[in-house]
């Protein structure tokens, strides 16, 4: 069954000192096509438009001294007040909630998201009273919030109904299923001595599905075993993981169900010997 189209677009409003950094990203590829089809809207708001001084100065030196400049709370406040009401006002911050696929799926259900993209030493702390959520895309430092905004825009926009060509394609992505994604192959059938797995060329859909699930489990165990603690595992998954060297104790610690009990084969009945 095809996924229904969204009844109204999801609007992303980005408050930034450098809208030119986000403009090409929002205008190209899947996000650009989604905008052209009216599925999402991207609004770039230049904080300098709300500076209220002839030099368009939006920052000032921090009280108490220290290096760097701080973006003024009154500038951010005026910019936010210029926008329609939002479901979420989000500040990018190293102290924020870790951005995950689950958060992306939650935000994709909204109709208007506002993002504050900081620069310099960030925003005046009083801006935090204006936001509903703080987000972080990882434990590292960048020069501003625009790159983080681009990540969130793409991760959330692709989840809106109608944005992707195949409405089911995101459901098996890494993290959406709780596991890393299985490996994908296309033509040529052999490249530099590496053939495409035969199971993918045989046309047996059940065998392909089983192989892909096993590969997803194998990759996750090898590269991100921490994901297995929260992944929705099945009894068959437990059997596969046991075959990959996982112990029963590990399965229990992950909350995984026990593997299927092998069916006992019935012994054939002996023929009745005539007297």
TrEMBL record:
Record GO biological process: tRNA N1-guanine methylation
Subcellular location: Cytoplasm
Biased composition (Basic residues): 263-275
Pfam families: tRNA_m1G_MT
InterPro entries noted in UniProt: Alpha/beta_knot_MTases, tRNA_m1G_MeTrfase_C_sf, tRNA_m1G_MeTrfase_TrmD, tRNA_m1G_MTases_N, tRNA_MeTrfase_TRMD/TRM10
GO molecular function ontology, one term from the record: tRNA (guanine(37)-N1)-methyltransferase activity
EC number of the protein: 2.1.1.228
Keywords from the UniProt entry: Cytoplasm, Methyltransferase, S-adenosyl-L-methionine, Transferase, tRNA processing
Catalyzed reaction equations: guanosine(37) in tRNA + S-adenosyl-L-methionine = N(1)-methylguanosine(37) in tRNA + S-adenosyl-L-homocysteine + H(+)
Keyword RNA-binding: no
Annotated residues for binding of S-adenosyl-L-methionine: 118, 137-142
NCBIfam families: PRK00026.1, trmD
Function: Specifically methylates guanosine-37 in various tRNAs.
Protein's recorded name: tRNA (guanine-N(1)-)-methyltransferase
């Amino acid at each position: 069954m095809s996924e229904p189209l969204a009844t109204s677009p999801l609007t992303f409003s980005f408050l930034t000192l450098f809208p030119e950094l986000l403009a090409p990203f929002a205008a190209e590829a899947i996000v650009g096509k989604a905008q052209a089809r009216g599925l999402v809207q991207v609004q770039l708001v230049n904080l300098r438009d709300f500076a209220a001084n002839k030099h368009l100065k939006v920052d000032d030196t921090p009280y108490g001294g220290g290096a760097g400049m701080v973006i003024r709370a009154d500038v951010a406040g005026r910019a936010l007040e210029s926008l329609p009401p939002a479901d979420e006002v989000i500040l990018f911050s190293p102290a924020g909630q870790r951005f995950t696929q689950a958060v992306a799926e939650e935000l994709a259900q909204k109709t208007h998201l506002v993002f504050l993209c900081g620069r310099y030493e960030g925003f005046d702390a009083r801006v935090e009273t204006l936001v509903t959520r703080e987000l972080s895309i990882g434990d590292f430092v960048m020069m501003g919030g625009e790159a983080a905004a681009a990540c969130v825009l793409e991760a959330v926009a692709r989840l809106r109904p109608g944005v992707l060509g195949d409405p089911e394609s995101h459901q098996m992505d890494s993290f959406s299923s709780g596991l890393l994604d299985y490996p994908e192959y296309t033509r040529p059938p052999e490249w530099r001595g590496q053939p495409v797995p035969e199971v993918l060329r045989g046309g047996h859909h059940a065998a392909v599905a089983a192989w892909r699930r096993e590969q997803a489990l194998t990759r996750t165990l090898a590269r991100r075993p921490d994901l297995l603690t929260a992944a929705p595992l099945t009894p068959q998954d437990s059997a596969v993981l046991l075959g990959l060297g996982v112990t029963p104790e590990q399965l229990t610690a992950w909350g995984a169900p026990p593997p299927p009990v092998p069916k006992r084969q019935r012994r054939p009945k002996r023929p009745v010997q005539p007297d």
